[in-house]
Specification:
Number of helices: 2
Largest sheet: 4 strands, antiparallel
Number of strands: 7
Distance between the termini: 46 Å
Strand content: 35-45%
Helix content: 10-25%
Order of helices and strands: EHEEEEHEE
Strand order of the largest sheet: 1-6-7-4
């Protein structure tokens, strides 16, 4: 018997044009680590849904929920969306949507050199 583990991939990845230096994976990882987290879940509130580090600004939203007071996302979904978005868009700003029941949108934008 063989067990195969499937990885959930983004259902949509949109790229935006940019002439700024490329967004780096390392800066995005550091920006994501600024979100409060516990047990592979990231948390944010409705008005504080982004974090920045160096070249990367990460924003996480749930388009299916109009005005959340507090929200959460599975870290592995966010990491996959960042990885796939950076790969497809070659370090340019991107919007990747991932998830089944309540999908999340992970937006990567140009950071403004914020400290990590």
């Amino acid at each position: 018997m063989t067990i195969v583990q499937a990885q959930l991939l983004p259902s949509s990845i949109l790229c935006a044009p940019s002439t700024a230096p490329a967004i780096t994976s390392e800066d995005c990882k550091k920006a994501i680590s600024k979100f409060p987290s516990e047990s592979d879940v990231l948390f944010w509130n409705g008005n504080d849904y982004y974090r920045s580090c160096g070249t990367c600004r990460v924003a996480i939203t749930k388009p299916s929920i109009a005005h959340p007071r507090y929200d959460a996302a599975v870290l592995s979904y966010v990491a996959t969306a960042v990885h796939e978005g950076l790969g497809k868009c070659h370090g340019k700003p991107t919007n990747a949507t991932i998830g089944n029941y309540q999908p999340i949108s992970v937006l990567l934008d140009i950071g403004h050199g914020e400290k990590c």
